[in-house]
Structures are given as C-alpha cells and as structure tokens.
Amino acid sequence: MLAVKYHGPKNLEYVDIPKPEVLPGTALVKIKYCGICGTDVHAYSIPGIFDWELVLGHESVGIVEAVGAGVDNVKVGDRVAVGPPGDCGKCYACNTGHPNVCANAFPETLGIGPNTQGAYAEYVLSRHPQNELFVIPDRVEFEQAVLFDVIGVGFHAVRRSELKVGDNAVVTGCGSVGLSAIQAAKLAGARNVIAFDLNETRREMALQAGADYAFDSTSEEDVAKAREILSHEGGAHVCFEAAGHPTSTTLCEQLCMAGGQVLIIGSDARPYELVSAALGPRELDFKLSFTYTKEEIYMLFQLIASGKWKTDVYTIEKAPLKEAIAKMEQLSSGELDVARVLLMPEA
Ligand SMILES: [Zn+2]
Ligand SMILES: [Zn+2]
User: Fold this and answer.
1) Quick check: 12 and 5 in contact, CB under 8 A?
2) Could you give the dihedral angle defined by the CA atoms of residues 178, 81, 142 and 212, in that order, rounded to the nearest 10 degrees?
3) Which ligand is nearest to the CA of 153?
4) What's the fold here for domain 2-147+314-344?
5) What CATH code is assigned to 152-288?
6) What's the 36 CA to ligand 1 centre distance in angstroms?
7) Which residues of the chain, if any, have pLDDT below 70?
8) Which phi and psi (to 5°) does residue 172 adopt?
9) Model pLDDT, residue 62
C-alpha cells in the first residue's frame, strides 16, 4: 500500500509498504481522510521536532475493516476517528484524570512516535483500539470529524481556563487553534471575545467564528481600541495565546486584567522573559495547555452533531495522498494557508 515516510526535515518519500496484518487486540482502519497537522508541517520545515523516521499522520478518519480477537469497542464497518492522545492508561497522570499529559503518550502515538505508522497511508493498524479509535456519530460527516485535532486543542484550553459566563476574553492568533478558542469562549459565555491577528483574512474568519471584535495586533490604534473595550475591568479576565510567538504572549500579558489569567496554547521554542517585578504586582496567573482528552473528542462530536459547533469556519483543501509531498511543501513555504489539507488515500 502507498504511504508517506518521514526521514527528516524536507525529506519525505512515497513508499510501498505491506498492508498491516490484523493481530489479536488490534483493529485495521481503511483511511478516508488524514489531516496535515501544523506539527507535521513544523517537523517538515525545521529540525528537532521528530528526530526519528516514521509514517506521518495523527489525525484521521476512516472505516474499520477488520478487528482482531478481543476487540469490543469497535466493529467492522464503524466510522471512526483515529488519533491522539495515545495515553498509556497506566501512569499516574492517566489514572488521576490527566491523560493528555501522559508521560508515555508521545512515543506511542501513531504518526508521532518513533517508527510508528500513521495515517499518511491507505490503512492504519490500531494496536490500542480502546485508546485510539472514536466512533463518529451518524450526524457528523467525515469532513467534520477529521477536524477533531484542529478543534480539540482550543476547546481544551478554554475548558482548562477559569473563564466564566460574563467574562471578557482576548485571543491572540486566529489560526485554527485560535478560531477554536474563540468558539469555545463564546460557548462558555464570554461577554466579549477580542481577537488579534496580523492577517486580514484570518481576522474575518475570527468574526465568523463568533469573535465580537477582530483587531490587527501590529496596530497601536487597534490595541488602544481593545484597551478601551476592556477599560471597565482594566483588562480581560482571560487572554489566550494561540499564535505561538513571544510578542503574542506579551500582548496577552499587557491586555490581561490584574488577577486575570494568561492561557498559553501556542508552542514555541524561544525562551520567554517573565519579569516578576513587572507582573507580580498584578498577580497574573500564567497557565499552559496541551492537546485534549478522549472525553473532549466525544464532547466535540456531540457539539458538531447538534449544530452548536461550527465547522465551516475552518478552511479545508482536499488532495490525493500521492500529492502529500507537494502540499507539504506549499504549506511549509506559506504558499498555501488553510486550516487543514485533507489527504485522501482513495483518490
Ligand atoms: Zn495535530
Ligand atoms: Zn499514561
């Protein structure tokens, strides 16, 4: 079967590998769509993300084609999402309600861990169906369900924050994670959600996702307008950093009210200077957020099924799996700017 192997930055290869064999306790899924995640694009563009070989693809949907003995959470013909978190279910974090920070998840996650075979392929073999396969409700289309990774990260961040009904929120960075944080903050009852992005198209998307205002983060005038909107409390209750850039974290810090919270979702390798003498007197609460949980994937599927979560705000482009390398190059160079490219092994 066709698959796309990652050897290192700028080094992807189309390979012909054997279709996986179904063993007891495993399930074989025929892939319908697999998203090209921002993490994949980073790993393709810069060194240090994945220092190992693997077949990429950690956010996919498809149909269960075969199940091994002992598998009872899915059956042949089920429409499923395949994805992280590949938590172990055994460690302290897993057993105390925090599976998204499982210490063992990273190497086990299909399409992320060393030598794993992810879903840039015609088929994927789930060795832990209980942990990796999520049955998609009838009213949710494959094209919607495959966005679970896009949506889950922002959704989890808002659930992890202390945002309450009536609060004001700021979201810096209106890529797919930011758009999800905007939607989740509105669902959670935020009075005003003020979005920031450099890019005008993304600002328009932020408004479609439910933001009350969308401003240019490089415009002093726009930042002043945000301050004016937030002037009653002296800042926002919660500022969500979704751009993965130090200047975006600084903007969050500046627009946060005293005693408010800065929730960092974006990840970035550059150090961030935290000056306690400047921030201490305002008692800012910095918190980080990482991925999402299985429970949240099911919640999202229910929200999509009931029409409460908009999926049409995420721009998608479909492409045959055999164009994966060309699409990756376009995403890496910035020539293509969409929330997700969906690879289709069947096309
Ligand atoms: Zn991802
Ligand atoms: Zn664990």
Assistant:
1) yes
2) -20
3) 1
4) Quinone Oxidoreductase; Chain A, domain 1 (3.90.180)
5) 3.40.50.720
6) 8
7) 85
8) -105, 125
9) 98
